Amino acid sequence: MPTLAGPPPLPVLGNLLDFGRDPLGFLDRVTQQYGCGVKIRIESARDTYIVTDPAQVEEVLVNTGRTFQKGYQRHPLMRLVLGNGLVTSEGEFWLRQRRLAQPAFHRARIASYGETMVRFADRQLQGWQDGQDLNLSEAMMHLTMEIITQTVFDVDLHGDPRAQNVSRAVNTVLDEYSHQMTSAVRALMERLPIHLPVPGEGRLRKAVQELDTLILALVAERRAEGRDHGDLLSMFLDARDEDGSGMTDAQLRDELVTLFLAGHETTANALTWSFFLLSQHPEVEAKLHAEVRGVLGNRLPTVQDLPRLPYTGQIVKEVLRLYPPVWWLSREPQADWRCDDVLVPAGAEVGISPWVMHRDAGFYPEPLAFQPERWTPEFEAQLPRYAYFPFGGGPRLCIGNNFALMEAALVMATIAQRFHVEVSEPQQVMADPSLTLRPKGGLRVRLHERKERS
């Protein structure tokens, strides 16, 4: 049986140092040099096989739950933060939770949140001024946190006394979780024969405990109240399985934390990258502004406007191609899996990188160019199905994908209608492959209010 080629690993450390120094560059180099199926060693106990063929990616993602599983439950940080929610659970338990959660993400239900997204975006813009400098990453993170808090918990961070505690706990959890999950120092310490406390893990545990306390208090309050607030928590509380049972407090906690953490950082990053790219491509921004102004005039967008804003949707698709929020995902075969002429052993890691595949010249002419116009129906029809998968795929497709796409388009239109965003030092902007793909150090911008508004 042939052995997959790959970069030579160091004793004990494998390829961890190269991967840890520059994950995206490392993935680009090894996949270009060795092709689909390159074998690397970034964990101490098993190899990782990187798959870049759309047909094989489809086989892996579509068969997750049958011949493949996520295997995330064995990761102590994922268990600590996400518990046994939709991202981490497996098998029959996952299937039950997905069935219980699915009605909350029905298109009609999601569309009802569009007004909240636009209203909160408009509220934030009321505080923006012509010539103002700000960190757009922070502004978008704050906005999407407000939106997800309102839509999940019916809590407005502007007026609720719990707002400061919620915001602080979530920010600490996100920052420390992202740092710990991508820390080469942590990975190295885990290989030591003795256990040593990892820097920052104590802060993470404390923040998780604080967030749990806040969420469980909200759940208890709602159970006692028994009223439908029109939010996702109400839907989860009302959800019933075939046997009439609902979610326990522990299950609610895991699903709510998963939604809360995954539901705002990914969209915030997508919006930040959108305005970075628009600032570097004035011709694209001009077409966006012409579309928005032609359809909306000076009124705010609504969900009903989205079909009449096709170029806005094309921009969102192209941003998610170049800067997919989830840049790396993995599965593990439950039995030996044949990848072409190579046998991948059971329990190994199969790595899949949207970052790599979305920038493959074999699928995307001029792959590094920002070209929203490429997303025509004809182009999409000929594109292999799993050459583009910003939200994963198969049965574990992100349950909130429609929420995220709608939020990105509505917020982008709301901002572009009123402001041009100038990036202060575009040459310094780098992608930081943390838990999600964010601009390293944030994105400093200067705001320019559009003068044609009456």
UniProtKB/TrEMBL annotation:
- InterPro entries for the chain: Cyt_P450 (IPR001128), Cyt_P450_CS (IPR017972), Cyt_P450_E_grp-I (IPR002401), Cyt_P450_sf (IPR036396), Cytochrome_P450_Monoox (IPR050196)
Which superkingdom does the taxonomy of this entry point to? Bacteria
- Binding annotation for heme: C398
UniProt keyword terms in alphabetical order = Heme, Iron, Metal-binding, Monooxygenase, Oxidoreductase
Q: Which family does it belong to?
A: Belongs to the cytochrome P450 family.
Keyword check for Disulfide bond: no
What the entry lists under SUPFAM superfamilies is as follows: Cytochrome P450
Alphabetically, the GO molecular function entries are: heme binding; iron ion binding; monooxygenase activity; oxidoreductase activity, acting on paired donors, with incorporation or reduction of molecular oxygen
Pfam families registered for this protein in UniProt: p450 (PF00067)
What's the protein name?
A: Cytochrome P450
- Cofactor (UniProt): heme
